[in-house]
């Protein structure tokens, strides 16, 4: 479970601690027995958020098709040209899906869009540099450039896998520094990589199949990818003890009561998400 620790009386901001239960702790036993509460509510929430997901999906699909038409599939600028305009729609859908999962009203802002764009820009930039390095390597035949392209490909895959957890976490925990979000997302993905791999593999296969068969079906793929991304993030974060309330962060007021009822202390691990205001303290 997790706890949000308050700031001192000087008002220097708060630090949120993401606490993962140890293998033998009561929290781990409870999680194994009862499952992830957010995932249990995922499908009803998905149905309620369906109009928003469909709207965001069509908008992202339009961004992809326009970027492909203007730049071409081999352009190094294509990943960024897709990621940055698509980020607000991805954040919008993520915020609504998370809110429906928790039974609260979604409150979106341009801050969500900026944080989503900052997350998506990392794998997009890595992909663009990889395409550029590969193109130079093919044209010049320089071995060093091919090695750079391979390193870029590895970095692209790693950042894409991590972004599956980082995107929902960055949107939902909008008071946390992005560096901390990436660190926690990387830890969760390293511990449980299968959900993120599944999301990327399914999205790539669905996009390819829709583009080569019926282009209209492609409009559904981005929304489905956002929904699967949220579920995969909740799964991976839950495996390190981050049980989703606001994608895994319980406040002191909403912390689950089972530990207090059983007289057990909240477990801690030292994985922290400091607020953006904290680094000025």
UniProtKB/TrEMBL annotation:
Give positions of region: Disordered: 1-29, 255-281
Organism of origin is: Agromyces archimandritae
- Superkingdom of the source? Bacteria
Keywords on record: Membrane, Transmembrane, Transmembrane helix
Instruction: Return the Low complexity bias intervals.
Output: 14-29
- Could you identify this protein by its name? Uncharacterized protein
Keyword Transmembrane helix carried by entry: yes
TM stretches of this protein: 49-71, 77-95, 116-138, 150-171, 192-211, 217-237
């Amino acid at each position: 479970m997790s706890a949000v620790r308050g700031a001192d009386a000087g008002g220097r901001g708060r630090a949120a601690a993401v606490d993962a239960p140890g293998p033998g702790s009561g929290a781990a036993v409870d999680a194994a027995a009862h499952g992830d509460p957010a995932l249990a509510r995922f499908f009803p929430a998905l149905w309620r958020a369906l109009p928003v997901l469909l709207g965001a999906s069509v908008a992202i699909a339009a961004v992809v098709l326009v970027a492909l038409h203007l730049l071409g599939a081999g352009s190094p600028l294509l990943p960024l040209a897709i990621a940055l305009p698509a980020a607000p729609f991805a954040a919008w859908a993520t915020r609504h899906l998370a809110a429906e999962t928790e039974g609260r009203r979604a409150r979106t802002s341009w801050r969500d869009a900026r944080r989503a764009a900052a997350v998506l820009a990392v794998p997009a930039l890595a992909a663009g540099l990889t395409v550029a390095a590969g193109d130079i390597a093919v044209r010049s035949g320089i071995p060093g450039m091919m090695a750079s392209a391979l390193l870029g490909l590895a970095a692209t895959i790693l950042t894409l896998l991590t972004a599956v957890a980082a995107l929902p976490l960055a949107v939902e925990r909008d008071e946390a520094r992005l560096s901390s979000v990436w660190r926690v997302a990387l830890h969760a993905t390293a511990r449980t990589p299968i959900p993120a791999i599944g999301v990327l593999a399914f999205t790539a296969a669905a996009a390819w199949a829709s583009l080569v068969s019926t282009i209209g079906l492609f409009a559904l793929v981005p929304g489905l990818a956002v929904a699967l991304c949220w579920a995969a993030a909740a799964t991976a974060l839950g495996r390190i003890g981050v049980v989703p309330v606001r994608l895994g962060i319980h406040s002191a007021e909403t912390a689950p009561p089972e530990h207090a009822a059983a007289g057990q202390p909240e477990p801690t691990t030292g994985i922290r998400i400091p607020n953006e205001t904290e680094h000025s303290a």
